[in-house]
Specification:
The complex is a heterodimer of chains A (387) and B (353). Chain A has 387 residues and is an alpha+beta fold. Chain A has 3 domains: 15-130, Acyl-CoA dehydrogenase/oxidase, N-terminal domain (Butyryl-Coa Dehydrogenase, subunit A, domain 1), CATH 1.10.540.10; 133-242, Butyryl-CoA Dehydrogenase, subunit A, domain 2, CATH 2.40.110; 249-383, Butyryl-CoA Dehydrogenase, subunit A, domain 3. Helices cover 46% and strands 13% of the residues of chain A. Chain A is built from 12 helices and 8 strands. Chain A has a 4-stranded mixed sheet. The longest helix of chain A has 29 residues, at 281-309. Chain A starts with 14 loop residues before the first helix and ends with a helix. Chain B has 353 residues and is of the alpha+beta class. Chain B folds into 2 domains: 3-190, Beta Barrel (Butyryl-CoA Dehydrogenase, subunit A, domain 2); 194-352, Up-down Bundle (Butyryl-CoA Dehydrogenase, subunit A, domain 3), CATH 1.20.140. Helices cover 49% and strands 17% of the residues of chain B. Chain B has helices spanning 3-16, 31-39, 58-70, 77-90, 192-227, 239-267, 272-298, 309-319, 326-337, 345-352, and strands spanning 102-105, 107-114, 122-134, 141-148, 151-158, 175-189, 229-230, 233-234. In chain B, the strands form 2 sheets. In chain B, strands 1-4-5-6-3-2 form a 6-stranded mixed sheet, with helices on one face. In chain B, β4 (141-148) and β5 form a beta hairpin. Classes of the chains: A alpha+beta (387), B alpha+beta (353). Chains A and B meet through α8, α9, α10 and α12 of A and α5, α6, α7, α9 and α10 of B.
Chain lengths: 387, 353
């Protein structure tokens, strides 16, 4: 199988990554000791804490791979990988900046104008400017090309946007939405044509952000409604009509990171503490099985970071990792459940019961967000030459 | 082309002349294939020339074992190159000629009594039963892990012509027992850690075989789905089949990444036991998914000995619980990762491979 598009070269060992890993670990231990945050499951969706994001920015742990002229730090993807996985493993509150640092910034670097880069990227790297993803709509989920939010040029050369986006995580605490819109009428012969990305300031008149509560009652999702929103003409991101291509590249970044298998790691850590206390053979075996899967996913994800450092865009391996990784995130709950006598409850006096509850109530999202696992497997099948 | 690629190509060339066959008690290994491999020097790869080997690195030996596993080759190369021969050399014992099959026995209860002072390589008397011995009745030499009053002992026993029980794994590979009653053998004391590392290397060898076999099963299944037509289309054009093949690919790719990393950890001389345990558990867990879906896609023909699929799926079903069961290695892995305390899981996970 060495020649097919699913496999990547083993990741190089990175001394620089291990160095920054140690720094992050020390920082997190100090923050936890000072009570500046408490560990939770799935904090890259639910843990919005601008003060914490700014601390990461001050330490140079946001925009790590970007050019220094835009506030970046010109470090490797392997170093960024180490930082992000340490933050996730600790269950730290990273949701405020996560999307901006992971995909919006790189998207601006690739397609933004010089003015956009200079204006926005340093603020993202400082942990002060947050983004949301404007892709899904009420009638368009997996079939992204069917979106109907429209942008038309007015007499001043500005864009007038009408439509709605949904599942926009943390729109109520963010500043910009990179929004996929239809800029030409739908062409049944070429469904991917006529789409463009706009850089939308969420404070503009005509934008309404309506909360949508997820299963645990938390407010992360929103519906963002656009009613005759006037967007300056120079806020087009990249090329008019090239939105599909740009969005596809953006999704490759979105799908490749350790947050695709570590969302429930804080539950594993809590389970490990329980297992260490009791040394029960069934718990040790369950921990071993979970760890072997996690270690394999880590190797896959590290290989992707290595490929990014080589300038590759490993979209098919990224889809594969996200499929295997998000399946694992949910499986953690049941592996643990079968060998502990702790009911899941957000009000449990037992931290393991609370972690189980958080993981369970967020579980349906793992295999949906960023492309459902069915869509991902279709991409993997393409990599196998089946379509 | 790298050295490793060249070695693999040589193995594949030889394999084209030696098709796998259903193993039976009468024909329990591929003696012709072994002779061809030995004649090409491939049964001594990774072993130093001064010890009678062919030279080369661990990576070369791993590549040979993988290529042979993918070809369902009924020869004791994994046991010899990755487990028994390195252990024999490390213990300071004399390595048998590479063309004489050498296997390893780690299960059962064999005790060793020193016949001399027991200090360093010496002579021992072995008593007891070695069970689940890979290639029993085929191997001419056996590296036996025994216990003694002073610690674990690795003994090298000449088993050519010695009586063995006719037990086999699910693929018909010989897995018999030897009853040893006062057998004299050269042997050396090991530390407990060395004995554990020997078991770990055996587990890693099976993981290497599983990884290669699972990759081949995926390749066969993708090929079959492209050729087999139903409802006027190849199977692979159906979304339901694509989902199954993608799921198989996810498992196979994950196993390969971890097994590769574990082999590299061994090359660096790091954390052998935990890395091998992780590789073995992960590879074993993938067998359920990959073998099940491969058979599902192949349909009834894959459920017969007329099709090649069983050569690999039956082996995988056995290999996952050989050289230590998946359950046993999962416990070793869990305990090993917690060795530094209840809060030390994450540092351990980022250090293992």
């Amino acid at each position: 199988m060495g020649s097919n598009s699913l496999t990547l070269a083993p990741a190089p060992r990175s001394a620089a990554a291990e160095e920054v890993r140690a720094e992050v670990r020390e920082f997190l231990a100090a923050e936890l000791a000072a009570g500046s945050f408490s560990t939770h499951v799935d904090t890259w969706l639910s843990g919005v804490d601008p003060a914490f994001s700014r601390k990461l920015g001050e330490r140079g742990w946001l925009g790590m791979t970007w050019p220094k002229q835009y506030g970046g730090h010109e470090r490797t993807a392997m170093e960024r990988y180490a930082v992000t996985e340490e933050l996730l493993a600790a269950g730290a509150p990273v949701a405020a900046h996560w999307i901006a640092d992971r995909q919006s910034g790189p998207n601006l670097l690739r397609y933004g104008t010089e003015a956009q880069r200079q204006e926005i990227l340093p603020r993202i790297a400082a942990g002060e400017c947050y983004f949301v993803i404007g892709m899904s709509e009420p009638d368009s989920g997996s079939d992204l090309a069917s979106i109907r939010t429209r942008a038309t040029r007015n007499g001043d050369g500005d864009w007038v946007v009408n439509g709605a986006k949904v599942w926009t995580s943390n729109a109520h605490t963010s500043h910009y939405a990179i929004t996929l819109v239809r800029t030409s009428p739908a062409d049944p012969a070429n469904r991917h044509a006529g789409l463009s990305q706009l850089l939308v300031d969420l404070s503009l008149p005509g934008i309404t952000v309506n909360p949508i509560r997820i299963l645990d009652g938390g407010h992360h999702f929103n519906e963002v409604v656009f009613e005759d929103v006037v967007i300056p003409g120079d806020m087009l991101l990249g090329e008019e009509g090239a939105g599909w291509h740009q969005v596809t590249a953006e999704l490759a970044f979105e799908r490749s990171g350790p947050e695709r298998f570590l969302s429930t790691y804080p539950l594993i850590a809590e389970f490990a503490r329980r297992t260490a206390e009791g040394q029960d053979p069934a718990q040790l075996a369950a921990l071993g099985r979970l760890s072997s899967r996690l270690l394999a996913l880590r190797q896959l994800s590290l290989r992707i970071a290595g490929a990014l450092d080589r300038g590759e865009l490993p979209d098919i391996p990224a889809a594969l990792v996200k499929d295997v990784g998000t399946t694992f995130e949910a499986d953690v709950i049941d592996e643990v459940r079968r060998v502990v006598d702790v009911p899941a409850s957000l009000d449990s006096p037992d931290p393991l019961g609370r972690a189980l509850a958080e993981a369970q109530l967020h579980a349906p999202g793992y295999t949906l967000r960023g492309g459902t696992n069915e869509i991902l497997r279709g991409i993997v099948a393409r990599g196998l030459g089946l379509r | 082309m790298s050295d490793v690629d060249l070695v693999v190509e040589t193995v594949r060339d030889i394999l084209t002349k030696h098709e796998p066959f259903a193993l039976t008690a009468e024909r329990s290994w591929d003696a012709g294939l072994w002779s061809a491999l030995a004649a090409a020097g491939l049964t001594g790869v990774g072993l130093p020339e001064e010890a009678g080997g062919s030279g080369g690195e661990l990576a070369d030996a791993v590549a040979i074992v993988g290529a042979l596993a993918a070809g369902a080759a009924a020869v004791p190369v994994a046991e010899q190159l990755l487990v028994a021969a390195p252990a024999v050399l490390a213990a300071g014992l004399g390595l048998p000629a590479p063309e004489e099959p050498l296997s390893v026995a780690v299960d059962g209860a064999v005790t060793a009594e020193p016949r001399d002072d027991g200090d360093g390589p010496g002579s021992w008397t072995l008593t007891g039963t070695a069970t689940d011995v890979a290639w029993a009745g085929v191997a001419q030499h056996l590296a036996v892990l025994a216990t003694s009053a002073v610690g674990p002992v690795l003994a090298l026993v000449d088993v050519a012509g010695r009586e063995t029980t006719h037990a086999a794994n699910l693929a018909g590979e010989p897995r018999g027992s030897f009853v040893l009653q006062g057998v004299t053998a050269a042997g050396a004391l090991l530390t407990d850690a060395q004995a554990e590392q020997l078991r770990a290397r055996y587990a890693l060898a099976r993981a290497v075989q599983l990884s290669a076999a699972l990759q081949q099963v995926l390749a066969w299944t993708v090929q079959y789905a492209g050729e087999r037509q139903q409802f006027g289309r190849p199977l692979g054009k159906f979304q339901a089949i694509q989902m199954e093949l993608a799921e198989m690919a996810g498992e196979v790719t994950a196993v390969a990444a971890l097994v590769d990393a574990a082999v590299q950890a061994v090359e660096r001389g790091e954390s052998l036991v935990v890395a091998a345990a992780a590789a073995k558990v992960r590879a074993g867990a993938a067998v359920e998914v990959v073998a099940r879906l491969a058979h599902q896609v192949h349909g009834a023909i894959g459920f017969t000995q007329e099709h090649r699929l069983h050569h690999l799926t039956r082996r995988c079903w056995s290999w996952r619980d050989e050289a230590g069961t998946e359950a046993a290695w999962a416990r070793v892995l869990g305990a090993g990762l917690l060795a530094d305390g209840p809060d030390a899981l994450w540092p351990a996970l980022t250090r293992v491979v």
